[in-house]
Every structure is written in structure tokens, then in C-alpha cells.
Amino acid sequence: MIILFFISLITFVNSLSLKQVLLAIDCGGQESFNSKEGYLYQDDQYFSGDSRVSDYTYNDVVYAGIAYTFTPRVYFTERHGNSFDYSIPIIKDGQYTIILQFVELYFENEGDRQFDVFIGTNRILHNFSIIDNKHQKGYAKEVFIYIEIKDDKVFYNDQECSKGFVNGKLKIGFRKGAADLPKVDGIVIVKGHNAGEEEKNYLIDNWEQMLEENRKKEAELQRAELEAQNMIVPDQVEQDEGEGLFSFLLSPIGIGIIVFGMSVFGLLIFTGENEEQKNKNKKKNKSK
Ligand SMILES: *[C@@H]1O[C@H](CO)[C@@H](O)[C@H](O)[C@H]1NC(C)=O
């Protein structure tokens, strides 16, 4: 169980490696920074149209913590407006995944904000609400859009998105829908179609556990740093659970328990065989 959990954690952390991520934009952001997975978010660029930036860095919801992400900073700033586009340069033909990153920090209910997202003239999201049954206010939401770029054209679900790829630039449009204004927090372009959607769903379904595990890791890193600076002596470092269990099993008491357990198991098998033998003997006696 524990091992399975660690494997999923590792695949999650490795899911978006530096190589796969072609480009990441922190919409509304002023400075570039590194994501938890180690790829670079560029400051906001490639946008056009009627839009503005909002910075929620000192907002209560942000202060309480953005759920479902280990790179909350992406969600501190946003771009919103009546109608705006991002024109993102992509040089090579191939399969790509667009990850659109959103968080609702203003409205409370599903449907309070509903907008459309386009690639060229094709509508990909229709009356899209960031808040849904799994995402409340303050919960990071990612939408994975799988595309292919071929011969100066972009395809979504095998259909060409007209005007979606112009002069080597992928055109993503945000338009008003049924309620309020469209907004976006981050755009990540990943090479290929294996962009970590399953890992993301795992993270959402196991969020509390993942959060706790992340806290432990951070604390360990901090401790290691302090140790390196000779701030604390290694002896004071408490053992982590896994190591504790392992050394317990190797201790005299642990070995005693294992040996005892094995002998009880052996005894059970032995008596079981005895019963069988008795039954057989009974049958034999009867047939005589
Ligand atoms: C989206 O909202 C508009 C405006 O309320 C409405 O006319 C349209 O039917 C809605 N479309 C979908 C697919 O929900």
C-alpha cells in the first residue's frame, strides 16, 4: 500500500518533465518562475484583445491555500476580459497537449461564471464553469486539450480548427458565455498526448494524502538544509515511518515476533494436515 502510494507520487512528480513541456505561461504574471516539477513558467505574453490582469496574491482564498496543485503561484494572477486570445509559437509538426489552468477566486457557485474557449473558429469549451462538483472556489482546475499540428494546420478530435494555426502560432480564444467574463491562470503546452491527466485525477482523488506527503517532504528538505548548515545535529532527526518500521523488524523484538508468527502459521498448517489424516483414517475404518 505504502509502496504503491510512493510509486504514484513519483510518477506524478515526473509526469511533466522538463523535456516534455514546450512552453508554460503564467497568465497575468510579471516574472518567470519554476514550477514544482521544475519547468519554467514565463511571465505573461503572446496575448491580444480586450483583457486585463488581476493579482490575487493577497486575497484570503489564496492565502488559505490553492487546492489540487503544488505550484499555487500560477493561480495568484489571472487574465480576464470580454474577448482575448493567446497566439503561441509552435515550430514543429506533431502531437501536443494544451493544459489550460483555472481557479475561481471570486464566485461561489457552479455556473456563476460561464465562458467559451476556442481554437481558431472551433469551440472547444462551451459555457465552461470552473466551479463544478470536484472544484470549489480556490481549487485549481486543469483542462487537457489534445491536438495535432500538421502542414500548417491544427486538428482537434481529427477535425481541422480553421484559423487555429496562423503563421506558426497556435491561436487559443477566450470568449464570453452564459455568465460573467472568461479568465485563465496558466497555459502549458506539452509535447505528445501523455501529459499527465491520469496523475492529475489521482492527485484530486487523493488530495489530503498527497498534501500530507508533500508537507513531510518539504519538512525533510528543510531539515536537510539546516543540517547542512550545522543548525541541528543529525541525532535529533526523528526517523520517518518507513525506516522506523524496517529497523523495528530487524530488532530482537521484531525478529521474535516474526519467528513467533511463522511458528503459529506452521502449527496451523500442521494441525490442518493432521485433521485431514484423521478424516482419511476414519473413512478407511468405515470402508473396512
Ligand atoms: C450557453 O449559454 C447560452 C447563453 O445563455 C445559451 O444560449 C446556450 O444554449 C448555452 N449552450 C450550452 C451548450 O450550454
Automatic annotation (TrEMBL):
Subcellular location: Endoplasmic reticulum membrane
TM helices/strands, residue ranges: 245-270
GO cellular component: endoplasmic reticulum membrane
Signal peptide start-end: 1-15
Record keywords: Carbohydrate metabolism, Endoplasmic reticulum, Glycoprotein, Membrane, Signal, Transmembrane, Transmembrane helix
Domain of life (superkingdom): Eukaryota
UniProt topology in membrane: Single-pass type I membrane protein
One term of GO molecular function: carbohydrate binding
InterPro entries for the chain: Malectin_dom, MLEC
Broad class of the protein's primary localization: endoplasmic reticulum
Residues of the Malectin domain: 21-187
Family: Belongs to the malectin family.
Protein name, UniProt field: Malectin domain-containing protein
Taxonomic source organism: Paramecium pentaurelia
Source lineage: Eukaryota, Sar, Alveolata, Ciliophora, Intramacronucleata
